[in-house]
Amino acid sequence: MVRRKSRVVHIGKVAIGGNNPIAIQSMTKVKTADVKRTVGQIKYLESAGCEIIRVAVKDASDAAAIKEIRKRIKIPLVADIHFDHRLALASIASGADKIRINPGNMRDKGGLKEVILAAKKRRIPIRIGVNSGSVQGRFAASFLKTVRNTIGLFEKEGFRDLVLSLKSSDVRETVEAYRLIAKKCDYPLHLGVTAAGSYDMGVVKSSIGIGALLLDGIGDTIRVSLTGDPIPEVIAARRILESVGSRSFGHRVISCPTCGRCQVDLAKIVHEIETKLSDVGASASLREASHTPLRKTKRPFTIAVMGCEVNGPGEAKAADIGIAFGKGAGMLFKNGKVIGKVSKKDAVRTILKYIC
């Protein structure tokens, strides 16, 4: 995988593009003017691994609240603006680290020019974010035309601190649009499948769309869009990045799907290991956005927990620590070598002993 070469843009203290890590974004889901709830949600998201946060600016009270919110959080704040360029100007004045505008519903060129000049003066970037719901036509060409026309307006004013996004709720349209724009410019790209749905379908659509682009080397920031609590968005984003090898956030657990050959409750063992090693718990807990404390460990480990003798020994040998179970017990491997036999009741404790 060769990563697309993109220019570097700074969003507060976070640099995106170039060789910088692909940043994880999310969006608050409460009224921005409610400072207490908004700050609380941002801190919650930050603890889960969110690196850039976006807030909706629907009216003047939301824009004004950014000033106070910004004082209380550590991660960069992006103001999400639609329809009214004056809200962008107010958000810039309040201290937003970046502005997102949607050219599909903000067509006043004079107003956009005012936003460009204000952002240029404050030295903050702007994301040109196009969604399928706000452009005419359903194909990638429509996205591309809208974005390129808007880029031209910005470049005419000498403004190049841009981030681009071209999101559709259709995975294929999204991937096609990003692949096209990636060839046309060097601006950093913010990836996502918009309106992906609730947890189950949203994670699948986002994993396919974002994952396909990341494997192409395309993408500098990502957001997984899910209906409901925003914490699972961040966790899913982390797992997508880990799965394609873009970033590592901690331990990796490999476990078999189990079959009729398995003679232990492997699902229970794996769940316990994930819960004790992870800062977010196992996947079942994700839907409830629950947290467990992050365990202090020596370094990130690959842990294989396998249910039988077919693929078990091979996977266990390839891991830092691995167990291949038989009936009620398993062979313990460390760095590819057998180091002993472990009962199922001692399996989790033994793994933790070697890792923590």
Descriptive overview:
The protein is α/β, with parallel strands linked by helices and 356 residues long. The protein folds into 2 domains: 9-243, Alpha-Beta Barrel (TIM Barrel), CATH 3.20.20.20; 252-355, Sulfite Reductase Hemoprotein, domain 1 (2-Layer Sandwich). 40% of the residues lie in helices and 19% in strands. The strands form 3 sheets. It has an 8-stranded parallel sheet with strand order 8-7-6-5-4-3-10-9. Helix 6 (171-184) packs parallel to helix 7. The two termini are 32 Å apart.
At the first level of CATH, what is the class of the largest domain? Alpha Beta
Walk across the major sheet and give the strand order. Answer: 8-7-6-5-4-3-10-9
What integer is the average pLDDT?
A: 89
Task: Label the CATH architecture of the largest domain.
Answer: Alpha-Beta Barrel
Largest sheet: 8 strands, parallel
> Uncertain runs with pLDDT below 50, 5 residues or more?
279-296
Looking at CATH, the homologous superfamily of the largest domain is: Dihydropteroate synthase-like
Terminal CA distance reads 32 Å
Which secondary-structure class do the elements indicate? alpha/beta
Concise account of the structure shown:
With 356 residues, this protein is an alpha/beta fold. The protein has helices at 35-48, 60-72, 85-94, 109-122, 140-156, 171-184, 199-215, 231-243, 266-277, 283-286, 312-318, 347-355; strands at 9-11, 14-16, 23-27, 52-56, 77-81, 98-101, 126-131, 162-167, 190-191, 221-222, 252-255, 302-306, 321-325, 329-334, 337-343.
List the helices and strands and how they pair.
Elements (H helix, E strand, L loop, with lengths): L8 E3 L2 E3 L6 E5 L7 H14 L3 E5 L3 H13 L4 E5 L3 H10 L3 E4 L7 H14 L3 E6 L8 H17 L5 E6 L3 H14 L5 E2 L7 H17 L5 E2 L8 H13 L8 E4 L10 H12 L5 H4 L15 E5 L5 H7 L2 E5 L3 E6 L2 E7 L3 H9 L1
Parallel strand pairs: 3-4, 3-10, 4-5, 5-6, 6-7, 7-8, 9-10, 11-12, 12-13
Antiparallel strand pairs: 1-2, 13-14, 14-15
Helix pairs in contact: 1-2, 2-3, 3-4, 5-6, 6-7, 7-8, 9-12
